[in-house]
Amino acid sequence: MLDRLEQDGFAAVCSDGAAGMLALSDKSIKLVYGSPPYPNAERDYGVWRAHEYIEKMTPFIDAAVRGLRDDGFIVINVKANREKATSKVSSKRSLIVEKLAILMEEQWGLSCVDIEIWVKENPAPTGLRAACQDAYEQNLWFSKAPKWTIDLDAIRRPYESHSVKTYGEYEYKPRTNGNTYVRKNKTIEPHPIGALPKNVISGGVSARIGDHQATQPLYLPEKYIKATTEKGDLVVDPWMGTGTTGVAALLLDRRFIGFDVVQSYVDEAEQTLRKVGANRQVTLDV
Ligand SMILES: C[S@@+](CC[C@H](N)C(=O)[O-])C[C@H]1O[C@@H](n2cnc3c(N)ncnc32)[C@H](O)[C@@H]1O
User: Fold this and answer.
1) Residue extents of the structural domains in the chain
2) End-to-end CA gap in the chain
3) CATH topology classification for 2-155+198-277
4) Which range, 21-30, 121-130, 272-281, is most confident?
5) One MF term from GO for this chain (predicted)?
6) Which of 83, 122, 158, 262 could serve as 92's disulfide partner, Cβ 3.0–4.6 Å?
7) Mutate which of 240, 247, 256, 264 to test ligand 1's pocket (most atoms within 8 Å of Cβ)?
């Protein structure tokens, strides 16, 4: 694995992701980014039920915390699927993701940067009538250190036209009750490289057609890689699937190691990453 990383700048490995991370040096990873099997989702690669979810995730968080540098981050993209309805109970929304987030702070001592929301503009219809159409996922974003540095400039976004118009026309004034960020009358100049990023990401689900049932769009890992890592840093995806995180990492000149237990996904990721990373020469420090 490490010789492939040294030679190509990436390695796609068929292994349990927690065991894979444990095989890396302590404190060598800058970002663990990945999308585990979702609670209650019945997929080709199995189902992790909500009642066993914390037990399933525990070795991954243990290994990630050990593998992360002191200035490292972990981002978990996940969605809680509903419990099955019966003749007596409706299909309840599982709260296991919220429980996992709380445990990441209380049990593993991580600090919550944010729980960001990915709004899916074209969600797959579920046909369920127990609640509204399911159209978002959560990105649990945690820092290993209680004081962190993230590069917000790297993920600025274009201003919305109505904001620019308001800034041009409007003078912000302190509130009379004193509860205000504005201390004196002022106008706002738009920042030359864009507005501060939002904690909501909007976009379509992946348009890639393949055998994998949960390929994610590139813009998800891209945001967190840009915000938390620098060129040459090591990004690890313990649930690699088709290698989307790796593609984003290599395109941004980061090094990447991904793990998955299904050989055909690893083969697909390897092929894709080889194309993206062709001719890369990256030095190794893990
Ligand atoms: C939600 S998918 C990830 C999809 C990926 N982000 C992509 O864009 O293709 C979850 C993946 O976790 C993998 N997986 C399940 N158990 C695993 C384990 N113990 N270790 C590593 N990967 C595992 C599955 O095979 C599946 O590919």
Assistant:
1) 2-155+198-277, 157-195
2) 11
3) Rossmann fold (3.40.50)
4) 21-30
5) DNA binding
6) 83
7) 240
